[in-house]
Amino acid sequence: MAHYFLNAWQTVRSHMPGACGERTELDHFAKHGQGKSDTEMASYRHYEGTEEGGAPRIAGTEDYDAPVRKASAAGAGEFEGEFGAQGAIDEWQAGWNVTNAIQGMFIVSLPYAVLYGGYWAVFSLAFVAYICCHTGKILVACLYELNDRGEMERVRDSYVDIAQSCLGERYGGKMVNMAQIIELLMTCILYVVLCGDLMIGSFPEGPIDQRSWMMISTMFLLPCAFLKKLTAVSWLSFWCTMAHVLINVIILGFCLIKAPEWQWSKVTFSIDGSMFPVTLGIVVFSYTSQIFLPSLEGNMKDKSKFHCMLDWSHIAAAVFKAGFAWLAFLTFGEETQEVITNNLPTKGFKVIVNLILVIKALLSYPLPYFAAANLLESALFQGQPKTKFPSCVAQDGELRIWAVALRVLLVIFTMLLAITIPHFAILMGLIGSFTGTMLSFVWPCYFHMKLKRNDMTRFGVAWEMSIIFMGVMCGVIGIYSSAKALVAAYHIPLPYPQIRPT
Q1: Whole-angstrom distance between the N-terminal and C-terminal Cα of the chain?
Q2: Are the C-beta atoms of 489 and 448 separated by less than 8 Å?
Q3: pLDDT class for 475, splitting at 50, 70, 90?
Q4: TM segments (predicted)?
């Protein structure tokens, strides 16, 4: 018996991130199932190479018997992770960044998804994690090709470059850039809406309504317009993330204490046809991380551990999200609100928890805002002949006055949209159904088949075509259902507690 337990432990240990580079790990991911080009990965930027100076072996490239060519280290990646970390990182740091992206603040809305999807919503939290993990791998694989010498070489830098290779220089990059900007700005809007939801949930009888709380929260976000780098908020953001983890543990502890009162009969296999597509959008949005994976993989010291890191981060996210959503709904049943902390019964306790989450939301806002501002500047404000508009940066390296004014207007723009659509979960479902399905489902599979079709098996092609089909169907139905739910839930002035769409 002890022998079996020892073998089981060795198997699990061999798949842990710290052991990802072992030969058994390489063999495991070489048989990923979609053909040898699935796991073509090398460097992006900040390339480290091996200590001996030789070309490292990349997971999944054994069949090629080809070394990996070192890429240029010019510049930084598109996104540096939540804490602004630059330079080479190990697999644990990379996993931390992925975990923060797919298991962040928006987990507070997942029990609301179970309200309308039952066990199907819980299942979707695991299934979507698997799909997004797969599409993240194949998206990174699209960055690399075999050169004439049989070496794996990075020929594309980013998601945008992949789109340009597949859809053409004129439209490909613009489409992905637009989707990324929309995704990032809508994330900013969600943070503002979340602040309003949390504050009105803490003080429902106060003189300040939800929209006014959003305006007050935006006042603290205006300094984001002056940010040149994210290190100013990175340390505080780290500790707020730790506080958020603690709050999640506290909520789970509260749910476990209420175990004798769990409403088992409320979680069923039946679904609400009008709202279930919205819940799928919420789930998809909660796993979206593809836009920064090329940069993250490029910053890893050991690229061969990228797949294992991605696997474990998504497994951990799926287990925690499904458990959190299920237990929270068992505890609060049909009274589950869009933000689960508003269900906490003790006012003092709820106020403390919500205020910590508000601070976390305010400190999380700069990352998507900063990334969106940079994308807009790169697309529109590089100066002629690259763009129609002049550069935002003066010769001394400082932002021009009008550029700062535009950044301030961008913050105000996110506030105005938040005030216009102050329904956190439904808005989250709309974003997930629109940009989430395109960035995480449809485009990675289409681009991978476009670039790697000759190296894929029939099963691999069929699987990725089915992902595209699921993405398109979920997107179209989800957009319609989310828009319909927003219309049904829209009220002026906005009441609290919010009336659920019917």
Answers
A1: 55
A2: no
A3: very high
A4: 119-144, 181-200, 235-254, 274-293, 314-332, 352-376, 425-446, 467-492
